[in-house]
Amino acid sequence: MKNKELAKIFTEISEYLEMEGVQFKPYAYQKAALALETLKNDVEDLYKTGGLKGLKGISGVGESIAHKIEEYLTTGRIEYYEEFKQKMPINLDDIVGVEGVGPKKARVLFEKLGVKTLEELEAAAQAHRIAPLFGFGEKTEKNILQGIEFLKTSKGRFLLGEILPIANQVLEKLQSLPEVERANTAGSVRRMKETIGDVDFLVISTDSARVMEWFVAQPGVVKVWGHGDTKSSVRLKEGFDMDIRVITPESYGAALQYFTGSKDHNIALRKIAIDKGYKLSEYGLFQGERLIAAATEEEVYEKLGMAWIPPELRENRGEIEAALAGKLPEIIGYGDIKGDLHVHCNWDGGANSIDEIVEAALALAYEYVGIADHTQFLKIERGLDEDKLRARNREIEEINARLAREGKNFRVLKGCEANILADGAIDITDEALAEQDFVIAGVHSHFKQPREEMTRRILRAMRNPHVDIIAHPTGRILKRREEYEVAIDDLLKGAQETGTILEINSYPERLDLGDVNIFAAKQAGIKMAINTDTHNVDQLHLMGFGISQARRGWAEKKDIINAWPAAELLKMLK
Ligand code: DGT
Ligand code: CA
Ligand code: CA
Rounded to whole angstroms, how far apart are CA atoms 15 and 30? Predict the structure, then answer.
């Protein structure tokens, strides 16, 4: 799929435009990049079937960008982009990926120090050549070094959001091969861990040699690490590895259990087996030579005295004890969400009108959708002031009236995503907040505050009686930015005392709260909302990633407010 390649090019164009101080245009390219990144259709198919018009049908893609997509699909390059690259041949993805280095700084670093790569950036910082530059200073130089350090620690792991679509495509193709009887993903992909080291597949096949040949010859394979009779391993052009193993039907369950992991879960499970006088391996559960269970995972768990454990829970965080005691949580299901409470519409620069959002939400069988536009402080995101919010709310009321006339069991909720200013005040008046059905508040600036200040800041926002939900509570960006310094225990206590709901932001780069914090929040009786934070209806399906982390954090329907019917939700938001 060319979607990702184009998204990367448009992101870089927007960064080049920002370097040159161009107004508004960078935003248009950013929007198009976002749309392409999460587009479910193959952009090439859209072009083949619909031509330019088909491309313009992608929300966020206008005339000029559609022409550039066409140019790329027909010639393999975009002249406009190549010109930028020639002028400033910077490895932008890497450099701008360092926390604290935006396009403008990247340009200065290139022009003054000739920095093009991450290695050159690190060397320049270590040689203290960055601090003296105008607009940089000691602190920035230190931040850059820290940022690079963080990138190194997460190197070699990939976002679940990048990997899962590709893994699922390979899985579908595997399943459609005539010689494949059954295929599954295993490992961290099956457990839906937030980041993935490599992808593991298991198959049952009547002709494993053919499957191996197919596997190592897939388009996109750039290196074959191993090509055996029943086991192979490859690297894809995206940079990650995939392993495959062929298993006999008799021991498929035991193998699936073993290769799903996690390793810690397996070790704990093997101890239980030993205590019972059994031996557990990837070939089955044995008593001496006698096979006790192997064909299905359910049997294996059953013979060990417990119910089948959902893969998302298999991290040895108490799930085995819970299963032995018959007390596994009834974790939220992938189909249990009744509405998304964090959707940006075209009032604040999102790609879609409220009508389009309603249509998309109805298609997902939602019962409600919460529009949460940015408020005024975030000018770049075209945040709404009090008057604009009021006008937008009138539009929502008209749409709700129409939906009621049409007899639809669906409603649009009026909300906003307000900013928590540096001192914990909210950037818009209490009167405006009082007019919303719900208020989300989030930190979008001053990320580098000291721990106590950041904690106090968010606690103050929680105490604002109008604030219902705290967005992306820790501010982390996976593989890019560490969470801001904040005392998470104090935040949980604050949420508990004020009845504030914490968001589980579904964006693959965020997944914030993450699984461990979700677990802690649940234990403290704190309610959560799984939201997509989308600026484009094509991203509403990212909800699945948030749900997966909620499951990993043991969250049940009762813990997740947007798994509740509208009436209950509104009662709690009052
Ligand atoms: P990853 O790839 O780093 O995201 O994490 P996993 O969990 O997918 O790990 P991976 O690919 O190394 O191995 C897949 C599964 O195979 C792992 O979850 C459990 C099982 N496994 C692999 N090596 C061992 C081992 O040495 N001991 C045990 N008990 N299980 C193992
Ligand atoms: Ca793996
Ligand atoms: Ca592996």
Answer: 9
Cβ of residue 187 lying under 6 Å from some atom of ligand 1: yes
* pTM summary value: 0.84
Minimum-distance ligand 1 atom for the alpha carbon of 243: 11
Other beta carbons less than 10 A from residue 124's beta carbon = 19
Q: In the structure encoding, which two tokens stand for residue 255, read together?
A: 């193998």
- Please tell me whether residues 57 and 179 are part of one structural domain: no
State the distance from the centre of ligand 2 to the C-alpha of 210, rounded, in angstroms. 23
Residue range 199-258, pLDDT digits in tens:
999 999 999 999 999 999 999 999 998 899 999 999 998 889 999 999 999 999 999 999
Q: Is the pLDDT of residue 436 over 80?
A: yes
197 lines ligand 1 (CB under 6 A): yes
CATH number at residue 226: 3.30.460.10
Residue 212 DSSP SS3: helix
Same domain assignment for residues 148 and 270: no
Task: Give yes or no for a contact between 52 and 67, defined as CB atoms under 8 angstroms apart.
Answer: yes
Q: Does the Cβ of 194 fall within 6 Å of ligand 1?
A: no
- 222 and 120 within one domain: no
- Indicate the average pLDDT of the chain: 94
Residue 107 has pLDDT above 90, yes or no: yes
CATH number of the domain residue 517 falls in = 3.20.20.140
**Ligand 1, atom 1: nearest CA belongs to which residue?**
197
CATH number at residue 58: 1.10.150.110
* Nearest alpha carbon, ligand 1 atom 30: 263
- Write the pLDDT tens digit of every residue in 134-150: 989 998 999 899 889 87
Ligand 1 site, residue 267, Cβ cutoff 6 A: yes
Q: How far is the C-alpha of 101 from the C-alpha of 103, rounded, in Å? A: 7
Q: What is the pLDDT of residue 380?
A: 54
Same domain, 438 and 532: yes
- Kindly state whether residues 285 and 370 are assigned to the same domain: no
Is the confidence at residue 379, as pLDDT, over 80? no
User: How many domains are there within the chain?
Assistant: 4
Is 3 touching ligand 1 by the criterion CB < 6 Å?
no
Spatial strand order in the sheet of 180-186 = 180-186, 198-205, 241-246, 231-236, 221-227
Residue 559 domain boundaries: 339-572
pLDDT at 378: 59
- 290: pLDDT confidence band, cut at 50, 70 and 90? very high
User: Do 80 and 32 reside in the same domain of the chain?
Assistant: yes
Q: State the Cα–Cα distance between residues 420 and 438, nearest whole angstrom.
A: 15
261-270, 287-296, 379-388: the lowest-pLDDT one: 379-388
Query: Does ligand 1 have an atom closer than 6 angstroms to the CB of 54?
Result: no
In a domain, 170, yes or no: yes
